[in-house]
Design brief:
The structure holds three protein chains of three kinds. Chain A is an alpha/beta fold. Chain A has helices at residues 41-48, 72-77, 95-100, 111-124, 140-153, 170-185, 197-203, 225-233, 289-297, 319-324, 334-338, 345-352, 362-375, 391-400, 420-435, 447-453, 476-483, 488-491; strands spanning 3-12, 15-25, 30-34, 59-62, 65-67, 80-83, 158-162, 189-194, 206-211, 214-219, 250-260, 265-274, 278-283, 304-309, 312-313, 327-330, 408-412, 439-443, 456-461, 464-465, 469-470. In chain B, α4 packs parallel to α6 and α11 packs parallel to α14. Classes of the chains: A alpha/beta, B mainly alpha, C mainly alpha. Chains in contact: A-B, A-C, B-C.
């Protein structure tokens, strides 16, 4: 199906999120859409998939016919289906029920015929999905597969994919790409939204770049990476020189640590982290790095082994004991776990300090907040509630809450969803902590971030943990393979 | 204009009109004159010094309960069990009185011990809800409600069982204590300035705890985001328990006042529903302590004013409850409408 | 005790559970859509009073039941409006309504206190009622009891078998996902809350026109049943069949209390009357304790075999609510 977007504008209050975008996508194309966060990609996709309506004067033309799309359900009637980054499915329900929900029909759905259709579609793309399984037991990649065949079954001729390669394995990615190519051959139109240059270069037959709500460039293969980057950011970006680790004393020592949760087991991990060192944890989401970092924070109790901090035994001690000993943990979900919506910045800084007496000294609190806001470059006032801040400023506020002095900083996705300048700023602040003798352990799904900022790294794959790898001696390709479960046997060690 | 304080006030005024309009319609539907009913309720509460003193008698426990609930609401807890905490306060107070009645201790000391005992009893009962919530995962609404019914049964059991009057047990309660074991009353009125003072101290203390202390700020953090508060280093479940204990102690003090200053014995309906009414007051004032005194006074006046209705107009006195409920409901709805307006503007 | 009296007793249990059955089915539908109707206790009292008053004045029992449903639907409409359209706390609005409707029923019911009125008669079903044992248990009941059986059956089929029922599950679980599948989430929440409210409203007349005919104000013995029904909804894990089991179990235990009272004469009757409430706390404890952190921690420290056994037992009892219960939805 041909898509023509003409003069798409969208205002949110005073923000001009899409500034007159014009784009033609012929049938059978795999169209890449690049852009950093806030560039207007998701606004444009939400307009096309019916979540929001564009400002009057904008036009969407499908196969030559102007259409007005009122809702996502409307969009699928026009043949536009969208695969969301976190698939919109129902985890406690069965795969088949997820599949059939949304298709109109009689009061009692005929599960036998639905199951037949399901099987045919799944076989066509070589997806091995059990229709009787529950969705909460599937991986993100399998949930994507389910969504894709569901949308096709509903008659989608245009498929929009939003950051589909985040959190899926290498083999699932390969399968996804094969599927998309096959669909394009069947004259489906694919729109692939991503900020991962490599994926876009690998897959797309044409690419456009959005910046600040405008379409700033369009190219076709062969792609020149540096050119794409320049279009995305409007300038050349250098991430700064890698800094070598200083060899300090051992801060954190893990001795034969074993961890367990409902889904996976981690056995006998040994790790010594030295002062000033940065350890990156890589792996698909849910491969064990989450419980590992929580065990380092004292939030998860190891089922075996010993944890020592600066020579003191902290095994099976509570989170608050860890915190007192100088371990701070910044979780990924800022407003859910990191900050308290409804409380102001001042109140947060006061909370993070040791209480002095019974009553709060308001003037001192105000001054403290002003100092921190200045030194952490937070765009907000002392009385601003945290939920009124932007994501980057919330992250800075979280960093400003770290206690001092500190032995160990644990971070989950410290820069996820942030613009490149915030990323550089935040890592600058973190490196300052390293210079003061703190160690850092962080999780990231961004391989470049891991290789750029860590000294050593651990790779997680379904509960297996690699030996610490030297970040300097590891390439993105190697890392990507390990994350996808390849190349483990050559490394030796205790994994399967 | 709708955004500011004035806008909020305007919406509350409209809510007030709606509430009175709604109740007027109900009165008309039973062939009663709304004006007469309101007039009777007004004179029934403010018509004489004696009647106003009765209003204050109701105001004391209501204010104490409201003060306690402001603490639990701050920490994000719906302490519906407050009703039972009042009852247990009264039971514990009665127990202390009975224990020391013959002891020869100075009555002032016995009264003090009894009130402290009441606070302890209320706190203990609240801790049950807290433990169920913290260690059992039982929502405090259900735990509290269940314990409310149990506390009522316990009262009746005591009145008809171990503490029954010599001769025949009756709904009129246990044997009244001698006069010297009562908090001193003002003139020949039923109000005790001591009780009034304790209630006012209670609300002022809560105001300062919530506004100016580290403890209060931490409570608020726990209430607004339990998980983040924990990660920030606040011992969260302990703070939940503290807030249950504080609320229970204040509710227990309310029960103690009912025994030591009003009834001088345990009666079956010792709490008079002030626990539930306190929840209404706390919701109406949107959990802001400064408004507790006027609104609690108003609600107490409605309660006392409606007592005359069955005699004067053959109407059930539950009208006050309908009016109070309508007020809270319409204020909640008006607040919702206002937020919608502000968002659009 | 003869077999005959036991059978009559058990048939009585099925009839006595009827108000709770309707209330629990209504609440289950409402909560499945994501709306907690906490007003239940007040709604049941008001509909009991209103249903009786209408039946008394019109001498028409059916009108009595219908007006009970209307009252329930109207109260639920207020809950829906406040929580869906105005996005206010469902707990706050529901709780206020619970108290207000209760007081309103006492105020408006004043003239009907203790007045004798119409009562639903038993309606044995020909042939079926002659089946040994089963006939006496199931087929010599009154019409509203038969309807209660049907309600359980229909609610189960609706939620788990039909297309709109699957969508209902989706709306309470992940409204955004239901929205992209074409559901008008907020409209459906209104519809299910109001239908659920109507079912809750049926609980009142099912009591005041069938079990204990008449309106007795504060001593009706009905006050508190709404709170019990709310916890049975949780116990039932938002599954009509399991919830119905909870309701029957509750009625059975109450009956057992009555039967055993002569045996335990030293236990005062007031204590037995409140027995359901500690029981309610206990059942909630059973279904929730598996979700607590300290239990998980203890489990983690157990040897493998014991742990598997315990976690299996806990998981069987444990319930988890619809994920979007109490959470407002906005499409964008």
């Amino acid at each position: 199906m041909n898509i023509e977007l003409k003069n798409i504008h969208k205002h949110f209050g005073r923000t001009h999120a899409n500034k007159g975008i014009n784009l033609n996508i012929p049938s059978g194309t795999i169209q890449g859409i690049l852009g950093e966060n806030g560039a207007g990609k998701s606004t444009l996709m939400k307009i096309l998939s019916g979540f929001i309506q564009a400002d009057p004067g904008s036009q969407i033309i499908l196969d030559g016919k102007p259409v007005i799309i009122h809702s996502p359900a409307d969009a699928i009637r026009f043949g536009v289906g969208m695969l969301h980054q976190d698939p919109l499915d129902f985890s406690p329900m069965r795969v088949l029920d997820n599949f059939l929900l949304g298709r109109s029909g009689g009061l009692f759905p005929n599960r036998t015929t639905v199951a037949r259709d399901f099987k045919l579609l799944a076989e066509q793309f070589d997806f091995s999905l059990d229709p009787d399984n529950y969705v909460d037991s599937l991986t993100v990649g399998e949930r994507q597969q389910l969504e894709i065949i569901r949308l096709l079954w509903l008659g989608a001729r245009i498929l929009i994919l939003d950051e589909p390669t985040t959190g899926i394995s290498a083999s699932q990615k390969a399968k996804l790409f094969a599927t998309l190519k096959k669909l394009a051959e069947q004259s489906m139109t694919i729109i692939f939204v991503s900020h991962k240059l490599e994926d876009v270069e690998h897959l797309c037959s044409q690419v456009v770049v959005l910046r600040d709500g405008e379409l700033v460039g369009a190219t076709r293969p062969p792609y020149i990476t540096s050119k794409l980057v320049e279009m995305m950011f409007g300038k050349m970006i250098t991430l700064g020189e890698r800094q070598a680790a200083q060899a300090g004393d051992v801060v954190l020592s893990l001795n034969n640590i074993s961890l367990e949760d409902v889904r996976l087991k981690i056995k006998n991990v040994n790790l010594d982290v030295r002062a000033g060192e940065v350890i990156g944890l890589a792996g698909m989401e849910g491969s064990g790095q989450g419980i590992f970092i929580r065990a380092c924070a004292g939030l998860v109790r190891p089922v075996g082994g010993r944890v020592q901090l600066n020579g003191h035994d902290l095994t099976a001690k509570s989170y608050h004991k860890f915190k007192h000993a100088g371990v701070n943990f910044l979780p990924a979900s800022r407003l859910e776990e990191g900050l308290v919506p409804g409380l102001s910045l001042t109140e947060h800084f006061v909370l993070a300090e040791e209480p002095k007496g019974v009553f709060i000294d308001r003037a001192a609190g105000q001054k403290l907040a002003e100092d921190r806001i200045r030194s952490f470059n937070i765009r907000g006032m002392p009385f601003s509630t945290v939920e009124s801040l932007s994501g980057g400023n919330q992250q800075r506020a979280e960093l400003a809450l770290l206690q001092s002095p500190l032995s160990l900083v644990l971070l989950e996705h410290p820069t996820r969803g942030l613009d490149i300048e915030s990323v550089i700023y935040i890592w600058g602040k973190l490196k300052e902590r390293c210079k003061q003798g703190a160690s850092i352990i962080f999780i990231s799904s961004d391989l470049d971030e891991i290789l750029q900022y860590s000294d050593r790294l651990l790779v997680f794959f379904s509960g297996n943990v690699s030996q610490p790898l030297d970040a300097n001696a590891t390439s993105v390709e190697e890392l990507g393979q390990l994350i996808g479960g390849k190349g483990w046997t050559e490394m030796g060690g205790e994994h399967a | 204009m709708l955004k500011g304080r004035l806008g909020g006030f305007l919406f509350q005024l409209i809510a007030l009109l709606f509430a009175f309009g709604f109740v007027s319609l109900i009165l008309i539907s039973v062939d009663a004159s709304p004006m007469d009913a309101y007039k009777n309720m007004f004179t029934g509460s403010f018509g004489s010094m004696r009647k106003f003193a009765e209003v204050l008698v109701a105001f004391v426990p209501l204010l104490l309960v409201t003060a306690g609930l402001l603490v639990t609401f701050s920490s994000g807890l719906w302490n519906i069990g407050v009703e039972g905490q009042v009852v247990l306060g009264a039971i514990a107070t009665t127990w202390v009185f009975r224990y020391f009645l013959e002891s020869g201790l100075h009555p002032a000391l016995v009264i003090t011990l009894a009130i402290l005992g009441g606070m302890l009893g209320g706190a203990l009962w609240a801790s049950f809800t807290g433990v169920l919530k913290v260690f059992g995962g039982v929502n405090e609404i259900f735990g509290g409600l269940g314990l409310n019914f149990v506390s009522t049964a316990l009262t009746i059991y005591l009145i008809f069982g171990p503490w029954k009057r010599p001769g025949v047990a009756s709904m009129s309660g246990t044997v009244p204590f001698p006069d010297e074991f009562s908090l001193p009353l003002l003139f020949d009125l039923r109000i005790s300035l001591w009780a009034l003072g304790i209630a006012l101290i209670g609300i002022v203390a809560v105001y300062f705890i919530l506004q100016g202390t580290y403890f209060g700020l931490r409570l608020k953090a726990v209430g607004k985001n339990f998980r983040a508060a924990y990660l920030l280093g606040i011992p969260t479940w302990q703070y939940s328990m503290y807030s249950f204990l504080i609320c229970g102690a204040l509710a227990g003090a309310a029960g103690a006042m009912q025994v030591a200053a009003v009834y001088h014995r345990l009666i079956p309906s010792i709490s008079s529903g002030y626990g539930y009414l306190g929840l209404m007051v706390a919701m109406l004032i949107n959990y802001r302590a400064v408004w507790a005194v006027p609104v609690a006074l108003f609600f107490a006046a409605l309660n006392i004013g409606s007592i005359q209705l069955p005699i004067l107009m053959k109407l059930d006195s539950s009208l006050s409850g309908v009016l109070q409920g309508a007020l809270v409901l319409f204020v909640l709805l008006a607040e919702g409408v206002r937020q919608k307006f502000v968002k659009k503007a | 005790m003869t077999q005959e009296t036991i059978l009559i007793g058990l048939a009585g249990v099925l009839a006595a559970a009827v108000p709770v059955i309707f209330a629990v089915m209504g609440e289950t539908l409402s909560e499945r859509a994501g709306v907690i109707n906490l007003s239940m206790n007040g709604t049941i009292l008001l509909s009991a009073m209103g249903g009786f008053a209408v039946a008394y004045n019109t001498d028409n029992i059916v009108l009595g039941f219908l007006s009970g449903m209307l009252i329930g639907a109207l109260v639920a409409l207020v809950v829906a409006f406040a929580s869906i359209t105005l996005k206010q706390s469902q707990v706050a609005v529901g709780f206020v309504l619970a108290l207000t409707c209760r007081d309103l029923s006492y105020f408006l019911g004043n003239p009907y206190m203790g007045v004798p009125g119409p009562r639903l008669q038993a309606l044995p079903i020909p042939f079926l009622s002659d089946i040994p044992i089963l006939g006496a248990l199931f087929f010599r009941q009154d019409a509203i009891t038969y309807i209660s059986f049907a309600a359980i059956f229909l609610a189960s089929i609706w939620i788990f078998r039909t297309r709109p029922g699957l969508m209902l599950q989706g709306i309470g679980e992940k409204p955004a996902a239901a929205f992209i599948r074409g559901a008008n989430v907020n409209l459906m929440r209104y519809v299910y809350t109001v239908i659920g409210g109507a079912l809750i409203g049926l609980a009142g007349p099912a009591y005041s026109l069938a079990i204990r005919a008449g309106w007795m104000g504060t001593i009706s013995g009905l006050d508190g049943i709404g709170w019990i029904a709310l916890s049975i909804t949780i116990f039932g894990g938002w599954n009509p069949a399991r919830a119905a089991f909870g309701a029957y179990l509750f009625a059975f235990l109450q009956w057992l209390g009555l039967v055993l009272q002569p045996v335990f004469t030293q236990v005062p009757s007031q204590v037995l009357q409140v027995a359901p409430f500690p029981l309610m706390i206990l059942t909630l404890l059973f279904v929730n304790i598996g979700n607590t952190e300290w239990v998980e921690r203890i489990l983690a420290s157990m040897p493998d075999n014991t742990r598997k056994l315990f976690s299996k037992a806990l998981r069987a009892m444990r319930v988890s609510p619809p994920a979007a219960l109490g959470v407002p939805f906005e499409s964008e």
